[in-house]
Specification:
elongated; alpha+beta
Amino acid sequence: MKLDFSQLNKQTKKSFSDQHAVIKKVMQGKVVTCEHCQQPLILIAPEQSDQPGIGCSKGCTFISLEFN
């Protein structure tokens, strides 16, 4: 039996691309809103938190980032 992962791969690729676009826009200083609560997404730097990333104030969207 051969499994077809093409649909899953397409969804994963789209999700990665969408997150990459959000990260890029926020890092450029553009206003991007949370899909769920419509609050602006903000950059949380390593100096501000133990979990740096991009997220909304309510916490319904969070993209974890690693800083070197």
